[in-house]
Design a protein that fits this description.
Layout lengths: L1 H18 L6 H10 L4 H25 L8 H17 L4 H21 L12 H18 L4 H11 L4 H26 L7 H20 L8 H17 L2
Helix pairs in contact: 1-9, 2-3, 2-5, 2-10, 3-8, 3-9, 4-6, 4-8, 5-7, 5-10, 6-8, 7-8
């Protein structure tokens, strides 16, 4: 029981941090499950379920705070949703999955440490550029078991297409829709969940709600971002070098 509570607290921290910037937290959950030695068959569906819950809470908070920019959403999701589904059913080896996941986690570290603020604002790109970006992010996200916000947010911020708050709102709904598409693929394939999932869900819901509320109110958790980055680095290292 103590071990399950420890799991829950760790997931609470991840959900809080990610929700505060409009993310569902899949890359963090994937990192924790790699560290805690969850089986490969459990990791992807568990991350998607938790992602759906937290991204929904995050979107509601940022939407209520009037940060949602809907005009950029549809070109992204029109290609990302079908490709997220496709990626979720593509058979890949466990070795390739771990290496791909490690690369994505390192991208998450870069996003956390170096892209916390938006660049100078620029006009939104043509719809077809957004659709191409959405297709790539959706495919990779479906293969790994996440919503894609950790890839979308750096792109939006680096290009200056949206403010940090707008990026958070857009990423949250983008993550939710892609996670739902990925979850459909997992349901069709069949999956198993760890016995501690219900306790973890409880902690994640509380952490996600608090993080989303604080993030939408423009309160930051910068003092914790280095801890989160360290977790992701440890997990990525383990995935690269440990069988």
């Amino acid at each position: 029981m103590e071990e399950i509570i420890l799991y829950g607290l760790a997931f609470f921290v991840i959900a809080f941090l990610y929700a505060s910037v409009g993310h569902g937290g899949a890359s963090g959950y994937l990192a924790l499950m790699a560290i805690f030695n969850f089986s490969a068959g459990v990791i992807k569906p568990t991350a998607l379920i938790l992602n759906l819950l937290v991204s929904c809470l995050a979107f509601i908070s940022f939407y209520r705070a009037k940060h949602f920019k809907s005009s950029m959403l549809w070109p992204l999701v029109i290609t990302s949703i079908p490709l997220a589904y496709l990626g979720s059913i593509v058979p890949i080896s466990e070795s390739f999955y771990k290496k791909l996941l490690a690369i994505v986690l390192l991208i998450a570290v870069a996003r956390i440490l170096f892209l916390s603020k938006a660049s100078n604002q620029k006009p939104a790109p043509k719809w077809y550029w957004l659709s191409i970006a959405g297709a790539f992010i959706g495919l990779v996200s479906g293969m790994i078991g996440m919503g894609g916000g950790i890839l979308l947010s750096p792109l939006l911020l680096l290009m200056g297409w949206s403010t940090q708050q707008q990026t958070a709102a857009l990423s949250a709904i983008f993550i939710f829709l892609n996670s739902a598409a990925g979850m459909v693929g997992q349901i069709q394939k069949g999956f198993q969940l760890d016995q501690s999932i219900y306790v973890i869900i409880l902690f994640v819901l509380i952490g996600g709600w608090l993080g989303a509320y604080i993030g939408a109110k423009k309160l930051k958790a910068d003092q914790l971002k280095f801890i989160l980055a360290s977790v992701l680095i440890v997990a990525a290292t383990k995935l690269f070098f440990v069988n």
